[in-house]
Amino acid sequence: MTSLFGLNLIFHSIQPKGGMERHVLDLISYASEQGLPVRAVTRHLNWPAPLPRHVEFVVVPDRTPFARLNTLIFESSALAKCRPEWPTIGISRVPGVEMSIVGGTHKAHLLDRKRGYTGLLDLRTIARERTMYQQAQVIVAHSAKVANEISHHYGIDPHKVSTFYPPVDTAAFSLCARNQRDAMRKKWA
Hints:
By secondary structure, this protein is an alpha/beta fold. The chain is built from 6 helices and 9 strands. The strands form 2 sheets. A 7-stranded parallel β-sheet has the order 5-3-1-6-7-8-9, sandwiched between helices. Strands 2-4 form a two-stranded parallel sheet.
């Protein structure tokens, strides 16, 4: 891995939504707070507050009216927008990154929806995922299920995959709120 001065981060959508988008905002904010320079390459940027210090956003505009095709084009060109002397974290399917953070795999998504891998874009997506997993030095799965999918469906050595559950916004998702909701339901039922 390249000596660390800054880092590149590739994700198609940097905006305040749920799931992986929230995790990306947290990663960028933390790096900024630590004074670590970041080049974030994305298709969509909607930062929820003043732009963080030490972060350069590179927006790759869509080229077609077709979202899946734009995603494929983005994943094919994003690495070229990174600073080559910095390590790269890929959260989109970008072969050639040092670290891949994975919230789910395309093969498992298709299997869960009971679809085959027959579409050209599906086959391209699966090929990009496989290459990314093979080339990444570190793979971080967001659950044991995803770690198993990477090993089982893509033939990746399980020792190469680490599982780190993403952070939870305890203000939005709290057991206290759930308990209060349950008490209210019992009271008004």
